[in-house]
Amino acid sequence: MVMKQQTPVVGKGEGVSSFVHIDDAAVGTVAALTAETGVYNLVDDDPSPQAMWLPALRSLWALSAPAHVLNKDALRRIAFRFPHKSPHTAQGDRAIASY
């Protein structure tokens, strides 16, 4: 979606994303093979806010600067729909989330 320029900065861009380098994922996977049985979560220890990583990535790929949308407009753009009827929504699965 970034390459198609369909990913805007939402709100102030404060939402964070974690990125894991392929080498780190491989090392973690190999380590998990010999570790105790359990659930392991390989994550970035320094998540980046969208306002930082999205413009940098688009610049690296020589794309135009990302659009900015308000939180409520982002919800409408993705047309989030409630998966079931709820006492909080009169229309149930037809309701579109909004603030």
List the helices and strands and how they pair.
Elements (H helix, E strand, L loop, with lengths): L8 E2 L5 E2 L4 H13 L13 E2 H11 L7 E2 L1 H7 L22
Parallel strand pairs: 1-4
Antiparallel strand pairs: 2-3
Cα-to-Cα separation, first versus last residue: 25 Å
> What's the overall geometry?
elongated
Radius of gyration: 19 Å
| Helix proportion range | 25-40%
N-to-C SSE string, H for helix and E for strand: EEHEHEH
> By helix and strand content, what is the structural category?
alpha+beta
Low-confidence sequence ranges? 92-99
Count of alpha/pi helices: 3
Number of strand segments: 4
Count of separate structural domains: 1
**Biggest sheet features:** 2 strands, parallel
Strand content: 5-15%
Q: Mean pLDDT across all residues, rounded?
A: 77
Strand order of the largest sheet: 1-4
Question: What labels would you give this structure?
Answer:
99 residues, two-stranded parallel ribbon, alpha+beta, elongated, two-stranded antiparallel sheet, 4 strands
Describe this structure in words.
The strands form two sheets. The protein has a two-stranded parallel ribbon. The protein has a two-stranded antiparallel sheet with strand order 2-3. The protein has helices spanning 22-34, 50-60, 71-77, and strands at 9-10, 16-17, 48-49, 68-69. It is α+β, with helices and mostly antiparallel strands and 99 residues long. Mean pLDDT is 77; it is low at 92-99. It has three helices and four strands, in the order ββαβαβα. The protein has one domain.
